[in-house]
Amino acid sequence: MRTRIKICCIASIDEAQLAIAAGADALGLVAAMPSGPGPIPDACIAQIAAWTPPPVATFLLTSETTAQAIAEHVRATQPSTVQIVGHIDPREVEELARLLPHVRRVQVIHVEGPEALALIPAYAPHVHAFLLDSGRPGAPVPELGGTGRTHDWSVSARFVRASPRPVFLAGGLDANNVMEALRQVRPYGIDLCSRVRTDGKLDVMKLALLMAAVRDVDAALYAEG
């Protein structure tokens, strides 16, 4: 199975084109956040989501915390997938599934320690996938993604093995460490932002090097069976 690749912090249709040309399976569109890189206006998110051709998925990254507010955010921007970046009440995710059953739901889990594993049964019945990131939602200014930091991949590997849903891995991935990350964690997909950018802009060379590294490790893992 090949590793799916999501390119996050897409800022324009031009960046979306670059990401898709490089082989991206999904685009991440960051709405207003308490901190971190890449937020763009909802009108821009809606424009990119409407332009993006199938089968490429569009992920709205929302920091809203209630089902009603998330549903309104999705209706305003029309992505194919909503990525919930905070550890919200699982009952709200359950209600979101009722409000918007046609929209794919991805729950971010910020891996600050082994306690992340306890969140699997709370969210798994209501989402289509998880995304493991390196934020600190409990910080004075919450960090909900885009930190450029790696986290403890041994915990992520345990999460992947325990999860009944596909799992994306995020947090400080680049061409130098992605092979180790894929071998150790074996995620369904990876999520990239800060480490494939230069001065805030998507860097085609960094992206190409990372894509090549991912395909190399995919081929090696396939050959190993």
Sequence-ordered SSE layout with sheet pairings:
Layout: E1 4-7, H1 13-22, E2 26-30, H2 42-51, E3 57-62, H3 67-77, E4 81-84, H4 90-99, E5 104-110, H5 120-123, E6 129-133, H6 153-162, E7 167-169, H7 178-185, E8 189-192, E9 197-198, E10 201-202, H8 204-224
Parallel strand pairs: 1-2, 1-8, 2-3, 3-4, 4-5, 5-6, 6-7, 7-8
Antiparallel strand pairs: 9-10
Domain N-(5'phosphoribosyl) anthranilate isomerase (PRAI): 6-211
Organism: Janthinobacterium tructae
Enzyme class: isomerase
Structural domains: how many = 1
The count of helical stretches stands at 8
- Please indicate the percent range of residues in DSSP E strands (runs of 2 or more): 15-25%
Low-confidence stretches: none
CATH architecture: Alpha-Beta Barrel
Helix-strand topology string: EHEHEHEHEHEHEHEEEH
The CATH homology group name: Aldolase class I
For the report, how would you describe the main beta sheet? 8 strands, parallel, barrel
Q: What is the spatial order of strands in the main beta sheet?
A: 1-2-3-4-5-6-7-8
Overall geometry: globular
User: Average pLDDT, to the nearest integer?
Assistant: 94
The tally of beta strands, per DSSP, is 10
CATH topology: TIM Barrel
Structural class: alpha/beta
Tell me the distance between the termini: 10 Å
Q: Quickly name the level 1 CATH class.
A: Alpha Beta
Helix content: 25-40%
Radius of gyration: 16 Å
